[in-house]
Amino acid sequence: MTPTVDEQIAWCLARSCRPGDVLVVGVATPLAAAAAQLARALLVPDLVLLEGTAVDAPPHDVATPLLRPEAVGEQAVGVLAQHEVLDAIQRGRATLQLVSPAQVDGAGNLNTSRVRGPDGSLRRLPGGLATADVARLVGRLVAYRADHSPRFLPERVEFVTGAAGRVVRIVTASAVLDWTGERFRLASVHVGAEPAAVVAGCGFALEAPARVPTTEPPPAEALRLLREEIDPHGLRRLELRERRAEALETLSRLAGRGECGKMRP
Amino acid sequence: MAGSKVIALESAAELVADGSSLGVGGVLLRRKPMAFLTALADAGRRGLRVHSFLASLDVETLVARGCVAEVHAGYVGFEQLGFAPAFGAAAADGRVRAVEYSELLFTAGLRASLAGLPFFPTRGAIGSDLVAELGLQELACPYSGERVLAVPALRPDVCAIHAEAADARGNVQAHSTRDFLHDADAMLARASAHVVVTAERIVDTDELRGRALLYSYEVDAVVEAPRGAWPTAMPGLYGADLDEVRVRLAAAVPG
């Protein structure tokens, strides 16, 4: 089975989880939500998962929180109050978050607030939610987006929503970049991507080894889980620009049928 | 009934003056007091300074109808359905002053107000460009010297929330589902100077005994508004009407 770009990214995100992690998954990031469940199923059984404010919900279709948000809370071990989840983050209890900013730069600054439009003016994005906070307070951040261009990876972000310091890895449509402590280094390129093109497509100076490893593709069991159990409707592709409209239609159709996704026992 | 706080929707709209700061309950596409906000727009309210933790159709509707001078929020959008077109256009051309918060900055402001304090410290958002935009000051802890941000109390003049049920005295029943940020409305209401509650049903006090979200002394007015959150969701009662939301967003796109 050949993985699609969203599946490769999900596997890279899942591989970023470690034993003992308390992983925060925010709203509107079904690809991160899928990766978190993949990690818990195959790699890190003891992973603690905070989905929004719901703690350790059982395995479920990523459609569920999009269609009927309360269903996740009902089956979770518990649901944190608004201030409880933010306090937990402020106390340093969250060790990992998967974030999808509009931009991440060579220093690890995150921008989820404004991007420059074709006419050069700054366009306002919906907003950063807790990006400014988690950039300071969550142990490790992994930034991802199904893109690999200077637009996503600029020399310097247009606006610092979240200050640099916690981004340990960037997963793009073509590669994995790891933070060395001083800069980002090309850790691997996905199957089919050329190291030279990956370096050229990055807006900041990217250190690259002489021989660049190939990113581990998702194993067959990961693909099966993703496609059949974690995200059978393909809603993770809401995060792919060219597949978004199609995934949105699927979401509308599911909502119209009154479906809410299955919680597995 | 003596001491009843139940009033008509149109009367409740008069509790919000032009130019006042308005706290709006609900989060994203859930529990937005849409019936009340529509009544405000119908009454021709202008110059509102809207405070909404995570906004969607609440801010978009008020901005589209020309009611808004400022928007204070951690997010204004529709998650997978995309951006808020009227808000985006008004913010871009300066008709509306958009003020972006992080979640910890917004809740720190509310918690200062809740605690009756002038400001609340937070470790969130340090190093962010949001800090200068909001004009926030850093403060050194007098004991350890740690630098924290001091967020001034956020105290809306009036807050509007939508609940499943309330009694005539103003006791409000807690939301029956503990979904994402189910408790945010109580924080916002208690941080505000005055509170308007719209409710799916007005019930006898006995029906909500033991599960109050807000108490009568914290609520100024109660309005019966069945399906008052539509087309946003009232979890446990009805889901978000995504088709209706998409229709409204398409109508707001200029051209």
What does the secondary structure layout of this molecule look like, with pairings?
The complex is a heterodimer of chains A (265) and B (255).
Chain A: H1 5-15, E1 22-25, H2 30-42, E2 48-51, E3 54-55, H3 63-67, H4 69-75, E4 78-79, H5 82-90, E5 96-99, E6 103-104, E7 110-111, E8 114-116, E9 122-124, H6 131-137, E10 140-144, E11 167-171, E12 175-179, E13 184-189, H7 195-200, H8 220-230, H9 244-256
Parallel strand pairs in A: 1-2, 1-5, 5-10, 10-11
Antiparallel strand pairs in A: 2-3, 3-4, 6-7, 8-9, 11-12, 12-13
Chain B: H1 9-13, E1 21-24, H2 34-42, E2 48-52, H3 57-64, E3 68-73, H4 85-92, E4 97-100, H5 103-114, E5 119-122, H6 129-134, E6 137-140, E7 147-152, E8 158-166, E9 172-173, H7 184-191, E10 194-202, H8 205-208, E11 212-214, E12 221-224, H9 242-252
Parallel strand pairs in B: 1-2, 1-8, 2-3, 3-4, 8-10, 10-12
Antiparallel strand pairs in B: 5-7, 6-7, 9-11
Helix pairs in contact in B: 2-3, 3-4, 5-7
How does this structure look, described?
The complex is a heterodimer of chains A (265) and B (255). Chain A has 265 residues and is α/β, with parallel strands linked by helices. Chain A has one domain: 3-Layer(aba) Sandwich (Glutaconate Coenzyme A-transferase), CATH 3.40.1080.10. Chain A contains nine helices and 13 strands. Chain A has helices at residues 5-15, 30-42, 63-67, 69-75, 82-90, 131-137, 195-200, 220-230, 244-256; strands at residues 22-25, 48-51, 54-55, 78-79, 96-99, 103-104, 110-111, 114-116, 122-124, 140-144, 167-171, 175-179, 184-189. In chain A, the strands form three sheets. A nine-stranded mixed sheet of chain A has the order 4-3-2-1-5-10-11-12-13, sandwiched between helices. Chain B has a single domain, classed as Glutaconate Coenzyme A-transferase (3-Layer(aba) Sandwich). The mean pLDDT of chain B is 94. The chains are: A alpha/beta (265), B alpha/beta (255). Chains A and B meet through α4, α5, α6 and α9 of A and α4, α5 and α9 of B.
